[in-house]
Design a protein that fits this description.
three-stranded mixed β-sheet, seven-stranded mixed β-sheet, 16% strand, single chain, alpha/beta, 8 helices, Spore Coat Polysaccharide Biosynthesis Protein SpsA, Chain A
């Protein structure tokens, strides 16, 4: 493990900055030897980012991608949600689909040999430095409801190798005439890397597994917990069903009373 390796996340607004505080704290607790980088766009003030920097993360300003006006219109929040509604869960009001594509900027981080990208709404519960030995492009399947989910990747955790040539190839494919990426960066990355290497689901355990597939949940095995759809810092309709997971995130965010997850009870119906 060297400083040529880094964990990278993306913050595009104040809400995701809160997520990044818990994420960075969780990474620090794993005694990782890799760097920790928070990419951030112009929608985030220095004051909002200060708590993340105080934890020791490197802040890296990035711009949104230079996509066309037509592309931007197709991927606006209203158009995106109309064309491809989220029927399984609720996306928060601060969710701006177009911002998701900014994570492709990590391929421009030439100072790093290998990057593990982590969405700002995840917690790392145990050391995952071994992911740096995995190939580009490695990601876990988008499993949270049924076995059919294994066909799709989830872009909340993935392994990448920075390359300006790869970045330029991505831009060329991304903004082709009439291109519409149903789940933004997630759909695009699966198209760009059709032979993606599948990680075990425990490297990106989606929170809905807690009540949809409880037999799959095992705290002792989970390395990364991902709060897809509703966020744990919000008041939302599923909070009661996800209360143990919400409480865990809030402990990491505050830095107080963080439990050993291996000792936590699994959901009813789980092992």
């Amino acid at each position: 493990m060297t400083k040529a390796h880094a964990y990278v996340t993306l913050v595009t607004n104040a809400d995701y900055a809160r997520g990044a505080v818990a994420l960075v704290r969780s990474l620090m607790r794993t005694d990782t030897q890799a760097g920790i980088v928070v990419m951030h766009t112009g929608g985030v003030s220095g004051e909002v980012l200060a708590p993340v920097a105080a934890l020791g993360a490197r802040l890296a300003p990035v711009e949104l991608l230079p996509t066309s006006d037509a592309f931007n219109a197709r991927h606006s929040r209203a158009r995106q949600h109309e064309a491809a509604p989220f029927t399984k869960g609720e996306k928060p009001a601060f969710h701006t689909p177009l911002d998701n594509f900014a994570k492709l900027r990590l391929w421009q981080m030439a100072g790093y040999e290998k990057i593990v990208f982590l969405d700002a709404d995840v917690l790392v519960l145990k050391n995952i430095d071994r992911l740096f030995s995995y190939p580009e492009f490695s990601a876990a399947p988008n499993v949270y409801e049924s076995l059919a989910d294994f066909r799709r990747l989830n872009s909340g955790v993935f392994v990448a190798r920075p390359s300006e040539a790869t970045f330029l190839a991505m831009l060329e494919r991304l903004d082709r005439p009439e291109a519409f990426w149903r789940r933004t960066d997630q759909t695009f990355l699966q198209d760009f890397f059709p032979d993606w290497h599948g990680l075990p689901v425990y490297f990106n355990m989606l929170q809905y597994v807690w009540f949809n597939l409880p037999d799959l949940w095992d705290w002792k095995s989970i390395s990364v917990l991902h709060y897809q759809y509703e966020k744990p810092w919000e008041d939302h309709a599923k909070a009661d069903r996800l209360q143990p997971l919400v409480d865990l995130w809030r402990a990491y965010y505050s830095g107080e009373g963080i439990p050993e997850t291996a000792s936590l009870p699994n959901p009813m119906g789980g092992p």
